């Protein structure tokens, strides 16, 4: 009897979905399209067995291309609610492979609010899926740490830190005395490779919220700069870059403000 009632309920839900949602998710009114995406995300989290399937996920994937940014934003937020848990993310392999390119490209969305949430989404994917994001995908996200919008740059800073700079995440433990030598060497490698050496203040500001304590480790920075060992010491180029990062970190710690040219406003401009 329970099984029969459950099937009846599922049939009713399916009828409502096909009779209402399938028509309204393309409604001419963007607010209605946004509500459809928001609710679909809720259904998928609440009734995973019924709704977390490729047959339903495809509607979110298609709507990632919506012309209205409010609708795209709801799609991204719905996906955040799914990728934030490993068990639900594991059910989304086909969706991920099909729509990952679109999600990565949305890092450059013309609406800053959407771009910020997309970077947060990709960070969740990084943390809760197994090697889904390729190095090429990540390379298109890293440069966002240099944009003028602080909200977007900080979101990208967390992604960069999780993927490339956290010694624990990349399988390299700091030394026993707890110093941050590994972190600074990884940071220097990224900074030098990015070839934007005049923008140390931007990079430091982007990482400040997630790696501030590491960046304020003046003792380790001093030790690295004073190291004269041919094996452990820094090359001239690394020393110069580390001094720039040190200077930017000191200014950031003293003033507590984003660098000149980085705004808290919504307008986003690349380098």
TrEMBL record:
<dbReference type="InterPro" id="IPR039662">
    <property type="entry name" value="Cohesin_Scc3/SA"/>
</dbReference>
<keyword id="KW-0539">Nucleus</keyword>
<dbReference type="GO" id="GO:0034089">
    <property type="term" value="P:establishment of meiotic sister chromatid cohesion"/>
</dbReference>
<comment type="similarity">
    <text>Belongs to the SCC3 family.</text>
</comment>
<dbReference type="InterPro" id="IPR056396">
    <property type="entry name" value="HEAT_SCC3-SA"/>
</dbReference>
<dbReference type="GO" id="GO:0000785">
    <property type="term" value="C:chromatin"/>
</dbReference>
<dbReference type="Pfam" id="PF21581">
    <property type="entry name" value="SCD"/>
</dbReference>
<dbReference type="InterPro" id="IPR016024">
    <property type="entry name" value="ARM-type_fold"/>
</dbReference>
<dbReference type="GO" id="GO:0003682">
    <property type="term" value="F:chromatin binding"/>
</dbReference>
<dbReference type="Pfam" id="PF24571">
    <property type="entry name" value="HEAT_SCC3-SA"/>
</dbReference>
<dbReference type="GO" id="GO:0005634">
    <property type="term" value="C:nucleus"/>
</dbReference>
<dbReference type="InterPro" id="IPR020839">
    <property type="entry name" value="SCD"/>
</dbReference>
<feature type="domain" description="SCD">
    <location>
        <begin position="21"/>
        <end position="106"/>
    </location>
</feature>
<protein>
    <submittedName>
        <fullName>STAG3 protein</fullName>
    </submittedName>
</protein>
<dbReference type="InterPro" id="IPR011989">
    <property type="entry name" value="ARM-like"/>
</dbReference>
<dbReference type="GO" id="GO:0030893">
    <property type="term" value="C:meiotic cohesin complex"/>
</dbReference>
